[in-house]
Amino acid sequence: MKEVQGVKKSKWLAGGLALTLAMTAILSACSDSNSGSNAKETGGAASAGKGGDEPITISMMYDDNPSYPYNAAWPVLEQFQKLANVKLDIQPTPDADYQNKLKIVLSSGSAPDLVSYVEHPVYMEFAQTGVFLPISDYMDKLPNLKEKLEKYKISEEIDNWTLKDGKLYGLPFMFESAMYNTAPVIRVDLLKKHNLQAPTTMDELYNVLKKLKEADPKGYPMANLNGALGLINLSGAAWGIGPAYNGFLYNSDKQAFEYAYTSDNYKQYVAFLSRLMKEGLADPEIFTSSTDQWKQKMATGQSVFTYTWISELGQINADGKKNVSPDFELAPLPPIAGPGGVKGPSAQRINFAYVIPASAAKKPNFDKLLEYVNWLYSDEAINLGTWGIQDETFVEKDGNREFTEAVKSSGMIQKALWNVGASNNNFTTVFTYDWFSKVLNNPLVDSLTAEANAKNWFPSVAKVPKLTPADKEEETMRSTTVHDFFMRSQEQFIYGKSTVEKDWDGYVKEINDKGVTKLLEIYNNTLK
Fold first, then answer.
1. Has keyword Signal (predicted)?
2. I need a labelling partner for 475 at 20 to 30 A (CA). Which of 240, 302, 385, 434 fits?
3. 72 CB contacts (<8 Å, ≥6 apart)?
């Protein structure tokens, strides 16, 4: 699910936040007496397995990031096991090939009791085979999960993880609410210097980039961080070509799927980028720059406009003030309007799921396993998994939490949390808005998020067709061919090897013949 998933995210903090955070000193070990949460619980017992029972052992497949390798001595992990009265038999699996190894484990029939970080394509492939436990059949034993789903009003996204049989087979990893943490970003000091207004439309953006190019002919005003799909993920909704499922949009008025990349909106998109490239207004490496190269271009003033995470700006601005000018200031903007309106990136709030193999239902400790899963969605577990250890990584006063001075002064809040085992996607089921806001530590995110909600900047999530196994097999056979041709053709249009004036109709016919027509038939049949 390429466009739906968006830019590949850190396995420890989905949403791209990990791109903004570097290494810092390791926090000291924390006392077992600090639980990390005093919050009240919802929907049943606060902790699983309490009451003097012996702890049960739960085996778990764990996505192990080499930058933040698994550590059995993490204080947060120790507290998870203590509070839930369980012993976790962790099976670390290298992140680099996790999804492929996951498929092997699921096919073997010997999957552990709990499997973390199952991405949507793998989930959909195996959920229909009977390998996963139908979570929706056990919601009466998961009141904390049920309460969170209702509280967060996340049914639109849950529908994408619900199969045609009406059942949910995964335990969702969720963000409490949408956040405007990616945006178009521009050098506002240069706008002021050259008496220019911040662009609000794509035509205005073109004119501003042209003026800035005239002021610095050696530069390329627009740069890009995350390749061709990354740019579509961040700007596509404004162009009316996203959010998409493998390039396919659901038209709610027509109640049908359509292919975005043969639409007039997409034609305008590639024509716009082609014009920027031809006139030297966009970086020739717009689809190939590495993160370090992109940062260098932005921090040295070679480029002055981009789409990125707002939390990236602190370090780039610091470098720019030192290397370019004391007035250097990159600042985020509201969405720049295009054919799709004033829309930012998708407010997608479920990035992956945890799963329980169906075979677990036959094990003697199955009820205890469900108690543990229910506890994972409790306030106690969520707070421990995000904020960490009370008085070590956070303090609480009058019901409000703040990170400790040691964490805030470390320079990298996220890494300080990783060092104690917090903010770990393998254990944490929910990232709350308040916590995420304080990790980002940028008041602009809060103010722009409030504006985004008030002005409806967040588009609906992409609708995912509910495919049968036969449909999925057909999709797999055709979608790679379609995607490869789309990517190759997009590059040719943007770099001027093809033109929309001469080559558009041929492109549309060929990509339809290569599989778009058949895929549309499959996807629209799922709606009947």
1. yes
2. 240
3. 90
